[in-house]
Structure to design on (522 residues):
């Protein structure tokens, strides 16, 4: 048992070290690389942004919209008993912007984009494409990981904003159509208790989740071993580990803003 | 394309290279010299370590012991940053071509040019057309690797390997999996590159037909050790039983695949 736990700790300590090393290399290519004449290709970054951002809009809006709807219905169930159903509006907007918007967007993107990145880079690894890049003196971290990192870092907060809006709109539909709250009043209450700080906290979280997804997916992809099975394993690991890290990071960031 | 200066000096030199993976010795004290402009073949059975030896020469693997000199620089012991500079002077054609799936044929060949030169796009276009016509693939610029045959992919890989006009080209099994005609064309291409452009070729192969057609010199490797180096005639007339068994494809002899490892 103890040897099992020891092995587990050593394995994941090595994993975390690899992840941090990759993070360091990516930061090098973003901040120091340009001064040495080598950085991520702009075209590559835009292509990844299209894939990460634009192609994910529908699913993110879908998930957040229905979360807003459900949140409004569930909170109305309790608040109605206290005669405070008007406050459904602010409950929906604040909880979406601070918590649910970024977390749900992060999880959806980890599933949709993180898995795709891990599978793509993993296949490139097992078919010698990564080695071919290295033989051509093209650094795979600069050429492959950095554009994906930048795309996720920028697009995840952007998607979160869209998701927040979709969720608030979902709550608005329930509030006005089902609970009979005046639309103007609903909007007013929605934003009355929502501070700019709440939105920024949410966007900061989204940025952190973007970093986590990019690092985990690129690391798993670039370290894939052993053919088709290895690619499958890398893909699964990237999704599972991203989920765990997103939830853990969410807790840490929330606690930070709660206590400080 | 410039014809390189070449007076038969040693361009690649391996000295006592040794490498183990998980305790198993894969390369055992290998030393060899490749002269400028020649076509040097490394042959041996599957799993004999020939591809691993080639990967040492391209800097993909670093040896535990020994030195690997490429144009006088010891790539086994230089910092990674300087290794990149050496890498730009050679090209490599991979066994399964290793083209980037997400790029078209044209973009694949253009990749080293776009990454390592400041040439204008029009000039890069001309170079790509030249390289692709050299391998007989004009008109396939817009195709993706998944849309062309394995043999064509291999030739695109070769076009990519020579895009930067390298001094040395490494080939990992250039004719395996090709039909006899395309195999013959590939052999001729390798021969032409070295005779017309003075490109040094290091070829890993076990296709005996192609080996004797293109080789200037041949090294036979067995269990990670180099057992014989010589011209095709010397190899054909070698007294070494390993070499004779290998070139004749004889199932009986000192190479025994069924022997239990000690």
């Amino acid at each position: 048992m103890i040897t099992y736990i020891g092995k587990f700790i050593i394995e994941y300590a090595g994993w975390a070290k690899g992840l941090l090393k990759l993070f360091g290399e990516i930061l090098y290519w973003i901040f120091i690389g340009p001064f040495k004449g080598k950085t991520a290709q702009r075209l590559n970054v835009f292509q990844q942004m299209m894939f990460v951002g634009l192609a994910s809009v529908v699913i993110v809006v879908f998930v957040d919209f229905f979360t807003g709807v459900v949140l409004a219905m569930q909170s109305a169930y309790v608040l109605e008993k206290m005669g405070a159903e008007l406050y459904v509006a602010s409950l929906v907007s604040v909880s979406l912007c601070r918590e649910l918007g970024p977390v749900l967007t992060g999880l959806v993107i980890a599933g949709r984009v993180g898995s795709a990145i891990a599978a793509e880079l993993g296949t490139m690894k097992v078919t010698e494409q990564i080695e071919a890049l290295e033989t051509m003196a093209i650094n795979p971290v600069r050429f492959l990981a950095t554009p994906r990192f930048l795309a996720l870092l920028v697009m995840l907060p952007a998607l979160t904003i869209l998701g927040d809006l979709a969720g608030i709109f979902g709550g608005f539909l329930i509030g006005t159509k089902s609970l009979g709250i005046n639309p103007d009043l609903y909007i007013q209450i929605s934003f009355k208790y929502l501070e700019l700080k709440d939105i920024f906290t949410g966007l900061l979280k989204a940025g952190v989740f973007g970093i986590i997804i990019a690092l985990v997916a690129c690391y798993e992809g670039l370290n894939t071993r052993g053919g088709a099975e290895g690619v499958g394993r890398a893909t699964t690991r990237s999704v599972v580990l991203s989920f765990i890290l997103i939830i853990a990071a969410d807790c840490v960031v929330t606690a930070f803003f709660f206590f400080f | 394309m410039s014809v390189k200066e070449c007076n038969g000096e040693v361009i690649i030199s391996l000295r006592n290279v040794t490498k183990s993976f998980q305790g198993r010795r894969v390369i055992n004290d290998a030393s060899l010299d490749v002269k400028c402009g020649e076509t040097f073949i490394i042959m041996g059975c599957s799993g004999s370590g020939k591809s691993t030896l080639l990967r040492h020469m391209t800097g993909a693997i670093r040896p535990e012991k020994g030195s690997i000199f490429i144009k006088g620089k010891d790539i086994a012991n230089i910092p990674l940053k300087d290794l990149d500079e050496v890498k730009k002077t050679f090209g490599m054609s991979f066994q399964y071509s290793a083209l980037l799936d997400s790029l078209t044929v044209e973009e694949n060949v253009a990749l080293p040019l776009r990454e390592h030169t400041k040439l204008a796009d029009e000039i890069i276009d001309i170079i790509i057309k030249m390289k692709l016509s050299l391998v007989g693939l004009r008109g396939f610029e817009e195709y993706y690797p998944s849309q062309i045959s394995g043999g064509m992919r291999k030739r695109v890989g070769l076009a990519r390997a020579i895009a930067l006009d390298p001094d040395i080209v490494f080939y990992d099994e250039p004719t395996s999996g090709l039909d006899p005609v395309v195999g013959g064309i590939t052999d001729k291409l390798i021969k032409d590159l070295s005779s017309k452009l003075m490109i040094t070729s290091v070829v890993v192969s076990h296709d005996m037909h192609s080996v004797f057609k293109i080789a200037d010199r041949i090294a036979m490797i067995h269990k990670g050790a180099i057992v014989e180096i010589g011209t095709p005639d010397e190899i054909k007339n070698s007294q070494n039983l390993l070499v004779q068994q290998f070139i004749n494809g004889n199932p009986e002899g000192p190479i025994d695949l069924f022997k239990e490892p000690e």
In short: The CA atoms of residues 193 and 199 of chain B lie 6 Å apart. Chain B has nine helices and ten strands. Chain B has a mean pLDDT of 88. Chain B touches chain A through 22 residues (CB under 8 Å).
